[in-house]
Structure formats: structure tokens, C-alpha cells
Write a structure and sequence with these properties.
By secondary structure, the protein is an all-beta fold. Helices cover about 0% and strands about 50% of the residues.
Length: about 130
């Protein structure tokens, strides 16, 4: 069975940093494109960042470019989201996702992912 387990969320102040982790099991991690999404109360689920299976390509929503970095460690079957200069608008439940596409491809759309984690809460106070 496939499991994606997020961790690293918490309550921080604006300007602080957090690193989210997503540990994957039950899939061939090195072949999976990975992504992060977030959903705040009253808002739709939003694409945040994605990384190709190869690790060579990344993609970000404009609002986090320059602040967030997605990376992966295939030896640990884990994808990370380093979040710097956090803003209150970043507050949301963050979900990781896995999908199987070409090695160099990233996935921006939620409906193109195959598996999802349960989410981890990030709250940024002003």
C-alpha cells in the first residue's frame, strides 16, 4: 500500500522558516514526480511546488518563487519543501502528492497525481 506522510508543520511568526518533509513508501519513489499543494480555510486547493522524478526540474507557483525550495532525497524516499520568509498568507494545510509521468516532467494539476498524504498544518502569525 502506498503511504505519503507529511511532517514538519507548526506555528511560526512571519519571516520565519520551516522545512516540510514527506516520506513515501509502497511505491518506486525514484520514478515518481512529487508535488506540494496547500489548502487554507475557505480557499481552493492550490499548487505550490513540484519536482520531476529525475530531480532535474522544479516548478513553483509565482507567490512562492524565491522563498520556497522543493527537493528530494531518493535514498530516503523523501521529498522536502523548504519554506523561507513565511507570510501569513502561507498558512494552510500542506499536502504532498506523487504521480507517475516522464522522468523529466513536473505536475502542476492535482488531478494528475495518483497518491496523496494526509497533510500537515502550517500557521504563520503576523
Amino acid at each position: 500500500q502506498v503511504q505519503l506522510v507529511e511532517s514538519g508543520g507548526g506555528l511560526v511568526q512571519a519571516g520565519d522558516s520551516l522545512r516540510l518533509s514527506c516520506a513515501a513508501s509502497g511505491l518506486t519513489f525514484r520514478r515518481a514526480a512529487m508535488g506540494w499543494f496547500r489548502q487554507a480555510p475557505g480557499k481552493e486547493r492550490e499548487f505550490v511546488a513540484a519536482i520531476s522524478a529525475s530531480g532535474g526540474n522544479t516548478d513553483y507557483v509565482d507567490s512562492v518563487k524565491g522563498r520556497f525550495t522543493i527537493s528530494r532525497d531518493n535514498a530516503k524516499n523523501t521529498v522536502f519543501l523548504q519554506m523561507n520568509s513565511l507570510k501569513p498568507d502561507d498558512s494552510a494545510v500542506y499536502y504532498c502528492a506523487a504521480g507517475f509521468v516522464s522522468a523529466a516532467a513536473t505536475i502542476r494539476h492535482a488531478n494528475e497525481y495518483d497518491y496523496w498524504g494526509q497533510g500537515t498544518q502550517v500557521t504563520v502569525s503576523s
